[in-house]
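ok, trying the design again with the full structure, not the truncated one.
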């Protein structure tokens, strides 16, 4: 009975950030899937099958493990392993005790020795793979979990086989960001569902994978399937809203988000998404909604930035810039914030300050097109034509010229009395502008008449 009890403890361990939860008895069908944030989840180790009956010392240690009495278990296992270093079951138990106490390197060492002593131990491969995943050693974790999926789980049953496949799906999804095959994650998830019923976490993962694969209809169907079972699921609501926003289905997204917020009125993510939609629809409700959210969560940088962006688009430049100044104070190395700050300063007519902001941004991110464009423009306004030309030369490595940059080229060369280059770029500007920039076209044509005499 102790063996079955210890096996059941695995399925009771919830996914947590650093160490396995204290084991509690439960039933296999209560197992919950691991989270997206934690590829493997911290599943408490199981007991591997042993070919030989365990010694009394090992049984006593396992009884202590069942009570979370780690010290007693270690006191029983240490002398036994000193005399019997190849006992796979005792090695696994020692790994379990170390794992439960957060001694991950020690636990990994014991699990590896257990695998070497019994290469056919499903639980040893599984627990080692899950531990390595928690340590972000994803390639190694994948090997161990792959081994587990090819082994007979024995008394552990199909629930733990599903756990192995789910963990593999999470890892393959993470590896896809570094050149892996996202399709493997979908295959892994399908394999998991052969051994256990679909959980809400499975549905969310299926939706997310479909969205990443640009299978948008499948992703939407998965989100709606989960919402049909749980209308208050924050992840499903946020996921479906994100999908609708990404497809620019703003009216549908607005209706959906308003209905969702009736179910979950205090959900910050949904409120922020609604504000995003309202801003995209140019609805005046966006600003007061964001101001309310920001007042309640002033420390939230994402909300602060959203409010700053919406205020800037609404022409509330000074209020927007005050928020960007706050953000830059906590993230002075963020080039995008510096660019947004510089753009606000341009609107406020503070060109020397804007020049300083864009200059800092280009030093942080030398390939930032907006920063280089801003630097070129503000340099022209503070009479630094050489800086304008240099910024435009660098910009040209990353993006094609347009009417605005042609005009900056032309005026910078004109200021430096480089007639031939100025004439060439004035002509390029007039052609590219085609009536869009009336005042600048008039200026360019006037200069061409003078320069071409």
């Amino acid at each position: 009975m102790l063996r079955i009890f210890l096996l059941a403890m695995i399925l009771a361990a919830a996914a947590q950030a650093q160490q396995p939860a204290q084991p509690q008895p439960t039933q296999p069908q209560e197992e919950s899937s691991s989270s997206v944030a934690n590829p493997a989840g911290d599943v408490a180790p199981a007991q591997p099958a042993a070919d030989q009956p365990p010694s009394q010392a090992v049984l006593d240690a396992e009884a202590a493990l069942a009570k979370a009495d780690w010290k007693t278990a270690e006191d029983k296992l240490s002398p036994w392993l000193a005399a019997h270093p190849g006992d796979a079951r005792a090695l696994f138990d020692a790994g379990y005790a170390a794992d439960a106490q957060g001694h991950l390197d020690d636990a990994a060492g014991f699990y590896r020795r257990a695998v070497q002593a019994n290469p056919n131990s499903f639980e040893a491969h599984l627990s080692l793979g899950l531990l390595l995943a928690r340590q972000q050693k994803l390639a190694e974790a994948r090997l161990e979990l792959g081994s587990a999926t090819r082994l007979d789980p024995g008394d552990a049953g199909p629930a733990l086989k599903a756990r192995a496949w789910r963990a593999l799906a999470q890892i393959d999804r993470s590896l896809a960001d570094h050149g892996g095959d996202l399709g493997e994650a979908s295959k892994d998830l399908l394999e998991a569902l052969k051994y256990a019923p679909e959980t809400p976490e499975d549905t969310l993962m299926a939706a997310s994978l479909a969205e990443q694969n640009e299978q948008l209809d499948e992703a939407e169907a998965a989100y709606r399937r989960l919402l049909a079972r749980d209308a208050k699921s924050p992840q499903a609501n946020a996921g479906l809203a994100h999908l609708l926003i990404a497809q620019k289905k703003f009216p549908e997204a607005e209706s959906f988000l308003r209905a969702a917020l009736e179910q979950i009125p205090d959900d910050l993510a949904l409120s922020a998404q609604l504000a995003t939609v309202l801003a995209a629809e140019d609805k005046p409700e966006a600003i007061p909604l964001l101001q309310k959210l920001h007042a309640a969560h002033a420390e939230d940088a994402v909300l602060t930035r959203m409010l700053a962006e919406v205020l800037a688009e609404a022409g509330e430049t000074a209020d927007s810039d005050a928020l960007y100044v706050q953000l830059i104070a906590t993230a002075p190395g963020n080039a995008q914030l510096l660019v947004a700050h510089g753009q606000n300063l341009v609107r406020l007519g503070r060109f020397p300050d804007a020049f300083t902001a864009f200059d800092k941004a280009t030093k942080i991110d030398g390939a930032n097109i907006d920063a280089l464009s801003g630097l070129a423009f503000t340099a022209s306004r503070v009479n630094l034509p050489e800086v304008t030309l240099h910024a435009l030369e660098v910009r040209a490595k990353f993006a094609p010229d347009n009417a605005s940059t042609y005009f900056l080229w032309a005026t910078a060369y004109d200021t430096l009395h480089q007639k031939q280059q100025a004439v060439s770029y004035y002509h390029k500007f007039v052609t590219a502008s085609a009536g869009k920039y009336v005042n600048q076209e008039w200026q360019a044509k006037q200069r061409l008449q003078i320069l071409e005499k």
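Keeping the full-length input from now on. Residues 1-216 form a domain with the Serine Threonine Protein Phosphatase 5, Tetratricopeptide repeat fold (CATH 1.25.40.10).
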